[in-house]
């Protein structure tokens, strides 16, 4: 490693996240990559001990397993926060794009777009090192089944960009779960169990399709918070309970808050088929019909992540899926109406049919 830079690798145990501090040794200008909110004090203490001037707080993507420390660090140091322009994070200081360079003293950080794990993934190349986030892990990679992930895009990102770097480039991942700290591009090309040169794109797609992983434990907290630079708003009209990781409210709660639907404070989105909307169960007054599937996904991708939305279906299953999908896309205040229209009718609450 070059002697005119400063480098530290730090670890957060709960999410197995690596945080990195890099700096130009001469000017002491520094950047921190993927800070975790719980370890901000530790990280800033080290930066102070090293006499560094923090210029940038960089996230490799919108994380689903931990809340970023970016906003808190910016508040305490005045450093600039930066994340992919595709994340649409309004509070970020520098929306980053492929090929962009960030000046760090006499050095530069090169931004490489590496989507696939999510659509917001970036890798950062600095002085013979590449910080790959979840795009490329040691002998593995991040999952591709949420946050607009794509196995095809991830394969292309790794093989078309990361594996084009010099073979002795040191790989520093966003996480490790087996005690590894670093690798090299050459070693990953040979030995990565999912993405090595011996694996075709079709091989990789099959591997990723068969993972069947559970959602990260903190996804419903982390994604909305990270879309707000680590600062999650706490206010909402209806207070939900989490059931199997999905925020839920009762039919009684929804009935009480129907006046908020009239004033547009809350939206009721019914995700059943159109033929179900006016059947014997009817629908809740003020609810909008947007069926689960491509129509709902299009609505969510274009929608306002700050809206408070209650999803409704026949029994609560499809609306639970809709709630989960919305949160993965960064919605902060979406909930499932438990029991659906079956429970609503059992309680003899008012329905409409058109």
If you had to describe this structure to a student in words, what would you say it looks like?
The protein has 354 residues and is an alpha/beta fold. It folds into 2 domains: 5-209, Ribonuclease Z/Hydroxyacylglutathione hydrolase-like (Metallo-beta-lactamase, Chain A); 237-346, Oxidized Rhodanese, domain 1 (3-Layer(aba) Sandwich), CATH 3.40.250. 27% of the residues lie in helices and 24% in strands. A 6-stranded mixed β-sheet has the order 1-2-3-4-5-6, with helices on one face. A 6-stranded mixed β-sheet has the order 7-8-9-10-11-12. A hairpin with a 4-residue loop joins strand 2 (17-24) and strand 3. The model has no long low-confidence stretch (mean pLDDT 91).
Q: What is the CATH top level name of the largest domain?
A: Alpha Beta
**CATH architecture title of the largest domain:** 4-Layer Sandwich
Provide the helix percentage. 25-40%
Low-pLDDT runs of 5+ residues are none
Give me the number of helical elements: 12
H/E topology pattern: EEEHEHEEEEEEHEEHHHEEHHEHEHEHEH
Q: Could you tell me how far the N terminus lies from the C terminus, measured between alpha carbons in angstroms?
A: 71 Å
What order do the strands of the largest sheet run in, or round the barrel if closed? 1-2-3-4-5-6
Shape: elongated
Structure class: alpha/beta
Fourth-tier CATH superfamily name of the largest domain? Ribonuclease Z/Hydroxyacylglutathione hydrolase-like
Strand content: 15-25%
Let me know the number of strands: 18
State the major sheet.
6 strands, mixed
The Cα radius of gyration reads 23 Å
Number of domains: 2
Q: Residue-averaged pLDDT, rounded? A: 91
Q: In the CATH scheme, what's the topology name of the largest domain?
A: Metallo-beta-lactamase, Chain A
């Amino acid at each position: 490693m070059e002697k005119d830079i400063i480098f530290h690798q730090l670890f957060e145990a709960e999410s197995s996240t690596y945080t990195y501090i890099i700096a130009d040794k001469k000017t002491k200008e520094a950047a921190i990559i993927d800070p975790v909110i719980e370890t901000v004090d530790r990280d800033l203490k080290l930066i102070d001990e090293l006499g560094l001037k923090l210029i940038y707080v960089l996230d490799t993507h919108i994380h689903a397993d931990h809340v970023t420390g970016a906003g808190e660090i910016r508040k305490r140091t005045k450093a600039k926060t930066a994340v992919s322009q595709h994340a649409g994070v309004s509070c970020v200081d520098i929306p980053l794009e492929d090929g962009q360079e960030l000046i760090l003293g006499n050095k530069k950080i090169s931004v490489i777009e590496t989507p696939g794990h999510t659509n917001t993934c970036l890798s950062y190349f600095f002085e013979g090192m590449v910080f790959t986030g979840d795009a490329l892990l040691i002998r593995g990679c991040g999952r591709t089944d949420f946050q607009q992930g794509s196995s095809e895009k991830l394969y292309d990102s790794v093989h078309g960009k990361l594996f084009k770097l010099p073979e002795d480039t040191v790989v520093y991942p966003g996480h490790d779960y087996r005690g590894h700290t670093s690798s090299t591009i050459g070693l990953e090309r040979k030995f990565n169990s999912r993405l090595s040169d011996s694996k075709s794109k079709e091989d990789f797609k099959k591997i990723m399709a068969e993972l069947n992983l559970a959602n990260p434990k903190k996804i419903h907290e982390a994604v909305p918070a990270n879309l707000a630079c680590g600062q999650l708003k706490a206010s909402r009209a209806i207070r939900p309970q989490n059931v199997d990781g999905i925020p839920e409210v009762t039919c009684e709660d929804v009935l009480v808050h129907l006046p908020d639907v009239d004033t547009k404070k809350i939206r009721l989105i019914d995700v059943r088929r159109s033929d179900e909307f006016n059947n014997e169960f009817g629908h809740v007054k003020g609810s909008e019909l947007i069926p689960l599937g491509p129509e709902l996904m299009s609505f969510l991708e274009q929608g306002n992540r700050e809206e408070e939305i209650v999803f409704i279906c026949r029994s609560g299953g499809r609306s639970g899926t809709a709630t989960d999908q919305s949160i993965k896309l960064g919605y902060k205040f979406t909930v499932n109406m438990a029991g659906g229209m079956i429970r609503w009718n059992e309680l003899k609450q008012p329905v409409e049919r058109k």
